[in-house]
Structure formats: structure tokens, C-alpha cells
Sequence to fold (664 residues):
Amino acid sequence: MTRCIQCTRCVRFASEVAGVQDLGMLGRGSGEEIGTYVEKLMTSELSGNVIDICPVGALTSKPFAFKARNWELKGTETIDVTDAVGSNIRIDSRGLEVMRIIPRLNEDINEEWISDKTRFCYDGLKRQRLNDPMIRGPDGRFKSVSWRDALAIVAEVALQVKPEEIVGVAGRLSDAESMIALKDFLNRMGSNNVWCEGNGVRPNADLRSGYLLNSSISGLEKADVFLLVGTQPRIEAPMVNARIHKTVRANHAEVGYIGPPTDFNYNCKNLGTGPQTLLEIAEGRHPFCSALLAAKNPAIIVGAGLFERKDKDSILSVVNSIAKLGNVVRPDWNGLNFLLLHAAQAASLDLGLVPESDNSIESAKFLYLMGADDVELDELPSDAFVVYQGHHGDRSVYRANVILPASAFSEKEGTYENTEGCSQQTLPAVPTVGDARDDWKIIRALSEVAGVCLPYDNLSGIRSRISVVAPNLLRVDEREPALIHTDLKPDCQQKLSTEPFSSAVDNFYMTDSITRASKIMAQCSASLLSKK
Amino acid sequence: MAFVVRSARVPPNSATFEEARQRTLEFFRKACRSIPTIMQIHNLEDVVTISQLRSTISSEIRKQAHITNPKVIDMLLFKGFEELNNILEQAKQRHHLIGQYVIGREGLVQDHRTKDQGISDFLKNFYSSNYF
Fold:
């Protein structure tokens, strides 16, 4: 027997918020029931939200249903880190285990929805975890050691290499506290080759308007024309996409898209695939220009996937000239937006994690990976010593010489800044696994063993250090807009390549170490992505 | 409790330091002679050797080497006989012996006191737990 009372909230959600017409009412009269037409799945990245809006519990969360009772759960109000939006979530835990993740209301960021990745990735927190400090022996196998020995070895190697051969990379899920500790530690060792994954070479960390979503997520609702440059918001940031969808529904905003073919859940004109189209718009030769010029509040959204391109500077200067042409940046409206991909990116640029040299990986002898799993390690010299500090045995572990287990976002207190510049804090919901430690504590301890002791011993100490570098990170739950919008950069002489834009995210369901370890996410990508 | 009463015979006090020393040597001999029995009744052959136990006993005695007051030595000897008796009566069990005399008083946790000299409280706490 079904509990469904045919209220059709889920049907309305699917068509009005998720923008897919998959759910509907079948049969009439006493035979009426909710269903997907003809054995199809509901292929939306927001499908999990129908669980929350179902008033009777006819739609339940498959991984959570009947696993725990509500009154056994402890709720912790925290932040999601699987994308750069920083959706507000509540982690419900029972004892040591995360039982479910549900959204919290925040009208400015995620409204009351979260993406399926956020909702169902939590089983990845229980799999493939790193428990103990480990050192790779001469036979290539890892051996568990004590923290004392692991830190002593790392410090010894770090002191033997030349300062410029020390390189540090912060991962996608790093919090601001650990990133400032990593930067301070490397600076004290004499190296300044520290950056965060996904920011590309020579990131623009000087002007905050150059990497933030300047209109703010809720501000996108005011826009009436969107130009998406090399970004696929539906898979890069589903909550931002939901906002665009809402705007398109409410204002009939026009959306133009430049990039590889992809799915949209609203009307969208595919203008082209590469920088050539961008150039045409900038020169006023493209039909989309008329829409851009007629718009009251035009919004350009540039994907952070372009930061990795070699001709990034010239693309950004073309985008800037489009912004000037369409009068996108005005005192009352800033429509030039950058959509970041990872939770750590905005904070890392605020803290100035910018590498000194462009190709430091090739000359590295000591590489410190703080949860960085997507760095290209092919060019790393074979005699380089790699330290992997992180919570999951993911890609980089294959190359690591020493593993230092750290805590995941559900286990620590950390500051994250989302793509619109709003800093938020996570709270620990469950205790750490095994002998793991918080990220910043590991670096603080290592710095002392290496003889370059960092001057902070607790979170308030490290936060007062952050307040010197980026005070906006400490104003929690407050959006700090970028102040200077004028383009101060010199004209770029770089040549624009004709290579079309590529998609920044291959698999929406598996983007970081937690989601890659998740069984549910693997099932989702197998059953949902192959259909496309 | 019969054996406790039987063993709790207080001998007359030693008159001089020399007499106390003699009694200590007698105690050591008695303890050494009972080692094979202890090994057998507590089944200790696979964890410890006779000579190890003997050196443990001597080191326990040498710990008090600085004491010259015959009254104090008599008291310590009384406690030593009591302990030996407890072991022979099996009032102390196998794990007591292993914990106290085989592994040592520090137990299984290694002694890092010498290594930890000069490190900050943060690092000491860090080595023991994530929560401090």
C-alpha cells in the first residue's frame, strides 16, 4: 500500500524547481497515482528534494529509509563542501556514524534545496578512510607508524631539500584555517610555491571581483539576460542553476551558452563552442549582442574551468570587453560573475595561495599534498618525496611516500568561503576516524618538529592570523562583496586559441575524494550518466 | 584468609644494619629459589626466563639500596615476603605478574619522557589525541 495522498507537491517541484517533466499523475479517479512515465528515472540533480517535500513519507530516501529513528539522531548545522556554493545542510548523526544529510533554509544560497550529490554522498565518509599515519617502505607497501615517527621523517626530508624545491598544494575540500597554516609553514620553510587545486597557473588573487560571483546567488534573480561562458551550471553548481531556472521561469530571461554540448533544464540558446563565438560577441557581430544590449540587468557567468586554460588571460579580457559593451558592470548592478568549482577556491584566493613559479611541480623534491587528489603528478620527478595529508585513500595516495590522516568536513570546525564570497563555518558532527587529526593541527605539529614553529596553538589563534590576511573570512554568514570592479589589468597580448571550451566536470556525482569513495554516487553515475 | 594469617608473622626487629643486610640476602635467596615454582604454577615459561625474573627481583631490591635504617629495611622485607607469599599462594594471578614484573611498571605504553623534553604542550597533546 502506498502512503501517497496525491498532493502532487513532488510533481510541482519536478516541473517548477528541478525543471524536469519526469514526474506526473497517471490514471484518473481511484486509480490515480504518481509516477514517472514509462519506466524512466527522474533524471534531475535535485531529485532528492522530493523526499523533504513529501508530506506523508511516501517518497523516502533510499539509503536512509528505515535505518534510524528521528529521535536517535543528533543534528549538526553545517555547510556542504561538495561544490563551491556552500549549501547549508544539517548532518544527522547517530553515534559515530553520519546517517543522513538534509538541507537547511538559507534564502540567499540554497533556498531550501540541496543537490543529490550533497544529500547522498555521506556514505563516502565511511569508506576508504585513512586511519593511521603510514610510511611507504622499500617494498612499496605502506606501514602504520606513530605520529611521532611520521612527523619526524617528514620534517627530516623537508629540511634536506632546497627551499625552492618545496611545493604545497591545498585540495578542493580544504578549509581556510588549514590553508593559511600550510602557506605559513611553507613560507617559513623558505618556499612560496603553494596553491589550491583548480585555480590554474597565475590565478588572479588581487581583485576579488575577478573570481567571485559578483551578482550574488540571490541577485541572479534580477538578471534578464544570461551569458554562460564555458560553464555548465547544472553540473558545476546545481543550486546556482536552480536560481537561473527560477529567473528564467519568472522573468523569461534569455540564456545564451558558449561551451560543449550539455543538458539544460530551461530554454537556452547554444551560441557556439569556443572563444571564437566570444570574440564575435565582443565585436558586436553576433545576433546575441542585440539581446545583451537590450537587457536591463545582463549577467555574464564565466566558469572556473577556464582558469585552467593556457589562453585564460585573453579569454578574460574578451569577456571584459563584452562586459563593457553590454554595460554589465554598473554602480547599481554587477553582472560579471565567475562561478567557482570547489569549496576551497574562493578562500584560497582570498588568503593569497598563489604559487611563485608556474612549473614548480616539475622541479619539486618535496611535495606536500593537503587533500589534493586532482593534481597532475605525471611531471613530478621520480625521486620527489610526496606527503599526502587527507581523509580518503584516493588518487594521490598511489604516489605518496607518507600518509598523514586528517579529518573530513563532517568532523572538524572549518571556515569555507563560497563562490559569491560568503564565508560560513562547518561544525563537527561526528568524531574523527582512527588516529586522524584536524588539518591545521597536523601542519602546526609538523612545523614544530621541523623547527619552524607556527605561532598559533588553537583555533582562535589561527583565526586571528586569518584576520590579518583576509578579515572577511571571519565574518561568518555574511557576504563580503568585492569592492573594486574596474578593470585594472593591462591589455593582454596573449593569443586567443581556437580550441573549444571543454567541460570542467566530467561526472557530476564524483568530483572529490568523498564522493569518489561513495557507493551511492558510483551507482548514480552508473545508472544516470550512461543514459545520456 | 588462612594463608594471610599464617604468613603475617612479624619477626623480631634487626638490631643492626648488618643483621638487616643479612636478612635481605636471605630474602633474595628465598625468592630466587621459588622462581622455578612460580614459573610452573603461573605458566610463565613462554613469556619470561628465570634469569630475567631474577634480575627483576634484584632490581626491585636495589631500588631501595639507599636505605640504611634497619627498621625501614625490616618493614620493606616484611612487604617483600608478603608479596612472595601472595605469588606462591596464587593470590596474585598470572596477569598480575606479567604486568608488574615482566612488562614493567610503565606498562605497554612506551616511555617518551626523554624524547618529549623541550616540545610544546600543543605537540604533546597532538601526539595523544585530536581533541584538546
User: Anything to note?
Assistant: The first strand of chain A starts at residue 23 and ends at 26. Residues 1-60 of chain A form a domain with the Alpha-Beta Plaits fold (CATH 3.30.70.20). Chain A touches chain B through 16 residues (CB under 8 Å). The mean pLDDT of chain A is 91.
